[in-house]
Amino acid sequence: MAHKSLYSIFYFWSFLFSLQSIANTFFYNDINSPYYITSNLVFSESDTVIFEAGATLIVSPGVDIRLKGLAYFNGGQNNPISFLPLDSALGWGRLYFDNFGIQSKHYYLRNVLIVDGLIDSHYAFMHISHLEMKNDQDLLWDDNFIYIRKGWAEVDSSRLVGINDGEGIQFLGASFARVSYCHFLGTPDAIELINVDQGELLNNSFRNISDDAIDLNHSNNTIIKNNFISNVSDRGMEIGSENFGSSINILIEHNIIENCNVGIIFKEGSEGTVLNNTLHNNNIAISCLELVGGAGGSSVSVENTIFSNSQTQDLQKDLISNIDVSYSLSNSGILSGSNNLFDEPLFVDESIQDFSLDPYSACINNGNPYREKDLDCTISDIGALYYHQEGQCETIDFSGVKVFPTLFSQKAEIVYELKKEGNVVLAIFNDGGQEVATLVDAIQEKGIHKITLKKQRSSGVYFVSLSFDNKVFGAKAIQLKN
To answer: Is 115 inside a domain boundary?
Structure first.
């Protein structure tokens, strides 16, 4: 049924319960808005709550809304569901999603606006998209805009704006974490993963942050790709432990990181790969340290990466940590390692944060030739953004190599389609360009071919190379260690 006003209903229920508990199915809609929530509102496990497009809930200071049953948030692009404070100076409490001990309950939040309130979920499966959160409150350091405890969550196409109080999205013990196409402004520790074994942080932007942008603590098997990080007072990316343990098997790929105290730091025994990134105008570009005594040194492999205008130094490490750099470029000094360049990167216009490569850049075609080719079919460029050269791709006789799944799977399926019969050589190469296995070496007929890899290999980045009639193409695969 539709509520005309929850305010009068609360008086009736207050005679029966000290904390309002409402049963059955409830609708919040545009027609009967706004709804005034003046005291804690709890929906039980047997309740279903439906928030329709345009519904507006105005919530009193300190008041929480707790959902234990089913809930649906069906906002519209132009008429979102809104949770607003009654008093903008004090804000309100939290929107709780309680799913204790149950691993099958999913919540979908689409087109929702939350002003001066927070989200807290426990053991729930959260699907969040097109969420906008604004918070001007004086939050505590451990108050999170979105707090995902246990369970599983994906946050997509959302925007979090704060005043550099509290923290952004924190995942604690989640089985999987994905944040993609989100924007963070003034949100310290904008994305933090603690004790998370699989994560994907893709295509996000981070600006004007007073602490770290991305923080991993004892979180393994994570891809951090295609992010833009600018003006961060501490670390653009912190890969470490914070007393929880090291972070292992981290791939940092195609990110732009500028104007940070430290662009990327690996600490307390953490390990990973930094591939095709652009680090510009950071105090220290990449740091690799133990920091906490007894935690162990860290290790990072850096490749196809631009170091531009580092204020103090490109690389920082202690005696028990290791940084291997190859096929990279610096304009500050000569990088130790193989096939590195000392030159200007020649960006199109760094003053407006356009880090595309100028046609005369030394970065073009000077990346590792064993790596996957750029989309223009040329040797990979150095840096996060490649320079597209027209007319370089030949007409090919197969649809391309695909690897499913591409992220840290126990097995992988390699699929390719031949447009005609021909000689196929399908091989796997390791991170150093060494062939570790030949899967196919034969003449194959026209059609779709599938190869399943069941044997697990050691952790790291691997490349699937397919040669068809002496033309070589490739796709990337990442596998978890045994």
So the answer is: no
Full residue range of the structural domain in which residue 422 is found: 398-479
Whether 432 maps to a domain, the answer reads: yes
Does 402 fall in a domain?
Answer: yes
Coil, strand or helix: which one is 28?
strand
**CA dist 293 → 269, 297, 315, 318 (Å):** 11, 9, 21, 12
DSSP class per residue in 154-214: EEES-EEE-SS-SEEEEEES-S-EEEES-EEES-SSSEEEES-S-EEEES-EEEEESS-SE
Q: Model pTM greater than 0.85?
A: no
Give the DSSP per-residue string, 264-328: EEEESS-EEEEES-EEES-SEEEEEE--STTS---EEEEES-EEE--SSEEEEE-TT-EEEEES-
Report how many helices (DSSP H) and strands (DSSP E) the chain contains, helices first: 1, 45
Q: How many domains does the chain have?
A: 1
Average pLDDT over residues 302-319: 97
What pLDDT, on a 0 to 100 scale, did the predictor assign at position 460?
Answer: 65
How many residues make up the chain in this entry?
A: 482
pLDDT digits (tens, 9 = 90+) for 397-433: 445 566 554 434 456 677 777 878 888 888 887 766 6
Higher pLDDT, 283 or 482: 283
What CATH number does residue 422 fall under?
A: 2.60.40.2550
Question: How high does pLDDT run on average in the chain?
Answer: 87
